[in-house]
Amino acid sequence: MAAYGLYSHIQSNRRRSVALLIGLFFLVYVMVFAGALLAEALTVNAPLDYLVQAALYDLITAFPFATAGAIVWMLIAYKFHQSMIDSITGGREVTRAEEPRLYNLLENLCISRGITMPKLKIADDEALNTFATGLNEEQYSITVTRGLMNALDDAELEAVLGHELTHIRNGDVRMLVIAVVIAGVISFFGEMVFRLFFQNAYYRGFRRGGGDGDRRGGAGLAIIIAFLLIAVAWALSIVIRFALSRKREYLADAGSVELTKNPDAMISALRKIEGRGELAAANSAVMEMCVDNPREGFADLFATHPSVDSRVEALIKFAGGHDPGPLVLAPPQEQEPGQLQSPASGGPWGSGEQNKAEAKPFLPDQPPVDLGDGGPWGPRRSGPV
Hints:
mainly alpha, 4 strands, disordered N terminus
């Protein structure tokens, strides 16, 4: 079976990702210890060292239960995560008869590299975005929004489909789903601890007229430490999720170019998608999986994706593409309620005949693109993994 991607860098990225996931799972036990420390501080008025030792004992006692709970959580996500994502985005599986244009493009890409074809889904949303999900070959799927289908020509659609196929082949989708699930455990546990704390404080303090009085021991300091541990664990879980996301977008762009031999199509697709990918109903976890996430944190510190400008710059530098610059698309035309834009007409962004005329043929007869020795993608080498 043929392989693709920047292999040595992909393998290194996988090793780092496994280490990050182990660290993320470790944060679950940090949360358990913080919860135990908080519980001890609320029930025993004792010095800080005694409370810490008691919390460590509680952690050892709770270790198998915390592990089992996290595994059960992951098994539930393994079974139902796809249906939950579909319910959020409105994605539905389509056949060749329903969407021949998109189906044929994806099938041709899979056949060209011997890849098992994932399920193809359409989300009836005018946003310009797409994402891949799943944990194994039976679950893998690619969801494309109706707006993206209408906005892109065939060559650009091939490019974004190649981007998502690279995420699947490189194991990015599986890693990100697992990371989101573990981070969900941390967020759930942190929220539960805060709720229990304030509920306990209410019954011990307000209802009893001021609480237990002055805490002679280290209970007050222990409570502060517990809250700090919970906050740090929660923040680190977010940082780890972002670390798993950002670098992979460069690799997926590179993989798309290797598949299609057409860097210009990937660049123009990114320029059309830029700033137009907001899925209003989607939560942050789903947006992390998309080809572009317009939601950015302060100072770009917590952005899950590199900027389109930096991705385009990398494609120009290492794949020889050409940047048309930011593109202005026409606003959607008026239509009857419930009526969807037809892909044949080009939708709200122009004529389907014009798109067809501008589209480049599938996998044009060109020599392989040299993606360079450095940059955000790392060294390139040929041959099987």
